[in-house]
Amino acid sequence: MANSSSSKPVLTAAHWGPMLVETDGERVLSSRGALESRHLNSLQTAVPDQVHSKTRVRYPMARKGFLASPDKPQGVRGQDEYVRISWDEALRLIDTQHRRIRESAGPSAIFAGSYGWRSNGVFHKAATLLQRYMSLAGGYTGHSGDYSTGAAQVIMPYVLGGNEVYQQQTSWPLVLEHSDVVVLWSANPLNTLKIAWNASDEQGIGWFEKLKRSGKRLICIDPMRSETVDFFGDSMEWLAPHMGTDVALMLGIAHTLVENDWHDRAFLAACTHGYAIFADYLTGASDGVAKDAAWAAPICGIPESTIRELAQLFSQNRTLLMGGWGMQRQQYGEQKHWMLVTLAAMLGQIGTPGGGFGLSYHFANGGNPTRRAAVLASMQGSVKDGTDAVEKIPVARIVEALENPGGEYQHNGQQKRFPDIRFVWWAGGANFTHHQDTNRLIRAWQKPELVVISECFWTAAARHADIVLPITTSFERNDLTMTGDYSNQHLVPMKQVVAPQGEARNDFDVFAELSERWEAGGMARFTEGKDEMAWLETFYTIAGERGAAQGVTLPPFAEFWEANQLIEMPESEKNARFVRFAAFREDPQGNPLSTPSGKIEIYSERIAAFGYADCPPHPSWIAPDEWHGSAEPGQLELLSSHPAHRLHSQLNYAHLREQYAVAGREPLTLNPEDARARGIENGDVVRVWNDRGQVLAGAVVTDGIRPGTVCLHQGAWPDLDRDNGGVCKNGAVNVLTRDVPTSRLSNGCAANSSLVWMEKYRGPALTVTAFDPPASA
Ligand SMILES: Nc1nc2c(c(=O)[nH]1)N[C@H]1C(S)=C(S)[C@@H](COP(=O)(O)OP(=O)(O)OC[C@H]3O[C@@H](n4cnc5c(=O)[nH]c(N)nc54)[C@H](O)[C@@H]3O)O[C@H]1N2
Ligand SMILES: Nc1nc2c(c(=O)[nH]1)N[C@H]1C(S)=C(S)[C@@H](COP(=O)(O)OP(=O)(O)OC[C@H]3O[C@@H](n4cnc5c(=O)[nH]c(N)nc54)[C@H](O)[C@@H]3O)O[C@H]1N2
Ligand SMILES: [Mo]
């Protein structure tokens, strides 16, 4: 039920935290954070824009060329007009074509991997619900991995036994107590902590604020002077290497350690495996090239003397290397965190309070101690006796799969074959902004026989679909969420604020109805006979059982739901003293890691056995194809970091855009040197291009970025102008990025290894139309 009282704000939550939303019962009036915080999170103000945006999908729509002959669609996806159809017609069309394709081509022809940051909540999980329906219908092709940590999450288990990127970090109180030096290496927590996969617990920035006032030595290694460096001001040093060269920089530091006998031999002997082989590479004994500071300096663009100073500083102090993820979203991205861990191992501080490395302080408030908690259960992606994914493709290889059906490829030591995908359904992801090389994607996108998109908004993906289904935002339905992916700090009701807009339906209801169309009794199988509130009560009841084991008692569900209040979980003294790898450090034999040797693998026999030239068996410097070392004069390194006032592409249409748009489009950060060389002034429209595509963006000229590097944050909506050479008017960075795997080990996203050209734009004035729905909508 929509809340009809106008006086009391409704409590709900998004990835960007618990929020209070004011409504008059029909319209959303305003929204704000529900937790007390000294750091305003701009995303929390955007609920009215989300619910009432002119770019909402209002009705089911179908592409003309598809409707003309659904068995054999005509026209070009992305160039066709859309026609309004009824829900009944839309679901009938989907059911008929789904049946036809499944019968003729089998379950692997149906791609339901549907990656993306759908709204949070334990029940209305778009892709999970899609997969649940496809499990009922007989299986599908899913995906493995993610765009976030594609390389790191595959390499780290070989090295440390766990993925490290989604695991709790040594607790913040201990970092503040014990660390002397903290290094943010390719991390921008001021931006990235605005969100979490559940809802943000909003504690992370507060911890970084304490760090700022701690008097510790703080260093940020990033080609761009990020919001975080600005936030730390004088208390942080900024070192700006060339993009993609961090392994060389780390090797230079490591070599300096060895030269001075500053490395921790005892730790290396007791806790690591294969160091000697790596050491031969480091010193050049095996290949004749000593990876010393003088070698590293011209590669990474950091002076030799600085590299040597870092080695001394790190080895003589309790040092914590906080690794972010931008640097592994690159060709050979696997090497980055492997080398970071190797460097930390050489420093010998892994497993100490406040020393070693951590790969999630910048994400989901890692290090904020885990509470004793009643943790919610959540919706599962398969029905009883259903068929789960019959096949999985590495998530960022989707275009390669469409281009090369049946083609063989290597993944993580396995020889695999791409399925022959004929039907793609995306629910809860924005693959036309998240995937690399948009123009190549658009070509590959013509291949499937059917593309269905479930969306709240007319995204570029929706504009390239055959059928577009209008879906509710999370403010038009009821749900539950925890805050903090690691802390479980709060349990929050996500109460419906207003009625569904237009003809929008919940993903759950769409797939429930399709299940019934698929087979008699399908709806009951899909829903297990439960509606929204019954499911929420189930998840809450399980939370109560889990909580009981932790000494946490929840009020009865009805009372909780009525109260419109979140529940804060009690602190745990034990968890507040958590030190990652403490037990292993104390007794490596008794508490081995789950690696083959039980130790930190600096050399991996398993990886050696795969024989991958693009992922050697110990951390190595391999020059990417596109980097400053291969750039022609005038070419620039392209950075696509995550945006401050969006979650990827989410909210690009919102009023927040006024805070960052330049010349009406996505801002592009460039150094004054690069601006002068091209006659570009602050605020100008620039054209940026390479052989993959071209975009227009608004120039932000600042010394806060390394010369030779430009940044376009990821997530601007593609707005390709076919009448003007296909230029993207809104500055969508993936029009320019290269679509190659990090390596054949993990096949991760490598967007941050791309070169571009840039000039002042002198063409006709082109207005951004990305947020105008199709004329007929
Ligand atoms: N160049 C470059 N590219 C990148 C990155 C980069 O660093 N550089 N980063 C990569 C990373 S790490 C990621 S995680 C991806 C992010 O890629 P995505 O997660 O795909 O990006 P979002 O913009 O969050 O897309 C979520 C979509 O889900 C829709 N949605 C929200 N709620 C619901 C719902 O309840 N139901 C349905 N059906 N839809 C809903 C939203 O409207 C939105 O369009 O981008 C990747 N792409
Ligand atoms: N506000 C907001 N928060 C978010 C997101 C969002 O879209 N908006 N996205 C969320 C998601 S899904 C994810 S995966 C995380 C992403 O978290 P990250 O991947 O850590 O975020 P990025 O901004 O891609 O990269 C972090 C920093 O790495 C730097 N960097 C890039 N390349 C290099 C390099 O070669 N060397 C060095 N030293 N630094 C480099 C970038 O300049 C950037 O400042 O953030 C999450 N948080
Ligand atoms: Mo991500």
Overview of this protein structure:
This protein has 3 domains: 61-145 and 374-381 and 391-568, Rossmann fold (3-Layer(aba) Sandwich); 152-370 and 578-610, Dimethylsulfoxide Reductase, domain 2 (3-Layer(aba) Sandwich); 628-760, Beta Barrel (Barwin-like endoglucanases), CATH 2.40.40. It is 29% helix and 17% strand. It contains 27 helices and 31 strands. Strands 5-4-19-18-17-6 form a 6-stranded mixed beta sheet. A 6-stranded mixed beta barrel has the order 24-28-25-27-26-31. The chain has a 5-stranded parallel beta sheet with strand order 10-9-8-12-13, with helices on one face. A hairpin with a 2-residue loop joins strand 15 (408-411) and strand 16. The longest helix is centred in the first third of the chain and has 19 residues, at 87-105. One ligand MGD binds at residues 148, 185-188, 191-192, 194-195, 221-224, 226, 241, 243-244, 246, 324-327, 362-363, 639, 641-644, 646-648, 752. Residues 116-119, 124, 126, 147-148, 329, 427-431, 433-434, 454-457, 459, 471, 507, 640, 642, 647-650, 714-715, 733-734, 737, 749, 751 line the site of one ligand MGD. Its cofactor is Mo-bis(molybdopterin guanine dinucleotide). This is Trimethylamine-N-oxide reductase TorA.
